[in-house]
Amino acid sequence: MFALSKRLTDAFSLRFARAVRETYREDEAYASTPLGRLALYAFLLLLLLLPLLLGPYPMYVATLVAIGALSALGLHLLVGGAGQISLGHAAFMGVGAYAASHLTGPLAPLGILLGGGIAAFLGLLLGLPSLRIKGVYLAIATLAFQFLADYVFKTWEAVTGGIRGRTLPPPEVLGLVLDTPEKLWYLVLLFALPLFFYGKRLLMTRAGRAFRAVRDNDLSARVAGVDLTRTKLLAFALSAFYAGVAGGLLAGLYKAVTPEYFPLSVSIQYLAMVIVGGAGTVLGAVLGAFFVLLIPEVLNSFVGALGPEYAAQLAAWRNVVFGGLILLFLVLEPLGLVGLWGRVRDYFRTWPLPY
C-alpha cells in the first residue's frame, strides 16, 4: 500500500506540480505542466474577450493599468533585476510618447516602436555612469536626466509643442480607427504580450542570471566572469525601451502629449510599483501596477459617491490615504504583493497538509 501510494504521489507531482523540473528547457518554460498551460491559455482568452465583458470606463482603467504594468516591467528589469536604481523612468516614457506623436494614424505602431528605440538609445547613454557609480549617486544621475528631459519637453517647441504639448489623432491598424479604449486594448496587447513573455524568459536565462549576479554583488559577478559593462548597459537599454513603448501607447490612449504627463512624481510612482509589487519578477510588475494605479481610481469613486459637498474636503486626504496604504503594506509585507501571493499559492499547493 505504501509503495502504491508513493508511485501515485510521484506520478501526480511529475505531471501537475510546478515545482518539479527535469530539464533546463522545462525550467525556462512559461508553463511546464498541463494545468499551467491550461491556465495560461484561459488567461490569454480572457484578455482577448475583456472588451466584451467590461464597460467603457472599466476598459479605460484596464488599458491604463496594462500600459502601466508594461512600463513597470521595464523598471523591474533594471531595479529588481540588475539592481540599478533609476529616478528618470518617466522621462523615457515621455521620449517614447513625443517620438510616437510624430508618426500617427496608420503609422502609429511604427511610431511606438520608434519611440521605444530612441528611448533605448538614451537609456544606453544614461547607463554609462552606472559603470562608475552606483547607489544614491546613480539615483542622482538619473534624477538629473529627469530634470533635463522635463526642461527639453517644455522648451523644444518644434518637436514637443512646448508647454501646450501635442494633440494626436487616434491610432489606426489595417484601416481600423482605434478611437476607444476597447479598440486600443488590442493594440496594447499587440505590444504588451510579446514584451511580457520576453521579460519573463529573460529573467530565466543566462542574461537574467547575470542581471541578478550584478544586483547581488557586482564584484563577485565580475570574478565569476560576468561582463559588467554589457550587463548594466543592456539593463538600462531594455528598461528604457519598455518605458518608451509604454509612453507611445499612453499617448494613443490620451490622444495628447504634454510635459505634465511625465513629471518626477510619475518616476517615483513607478518606483513604488517596483517596491509594492515585488522587485525582480514579471508578476510583481503587474501586481504593483494594479495596486498603485487602481487604488487611486477606487478612492476617486469613493469620494465621488459621497457627494459634491464632501468631495472638496476629502480630495486632499485621498493622497494621504493612498500613501498610508503603501506604508502599511510595506510594514506588513516587505516582500511585496509577490511575497503575499507566494504564501497563498504555497498554502493551496500543500493543502490539506499543514506544511
From TrEMBL:
InterPro entries linked to this entry: ABC_transp_permease, LivM-like
Record has Transmembrane helix as a keyword: yes
GO terms, molecular function: branched-chain amino acid transmembrane transporter activity
Keywords, ordered alphabetically: Cell membrane, Membrane, Transmembrane, Transmembrane helix
GO CC field: plasma membrane
Record's bilayer topology term: Multi-pass membrane protein
Residue intervals passing through the bilayer: 35-54, 60-78, 107-128, 135-153, 184-203, 233-256, 268-295, 316-341
CDD domains in the record: TM_PBP1_LivM_like
Annotated compartments: Cell membrane
PANTHER family: ABC TRANSPORTER PERMEASE PROTEIN, HIGH-AFFINITY BRANCHED-CHAIN AMINO ACID TRANSPORT SYSTEM PERMEASE
Name recorded for this polypeptide: ABC-type transporter, integral membrane subunit
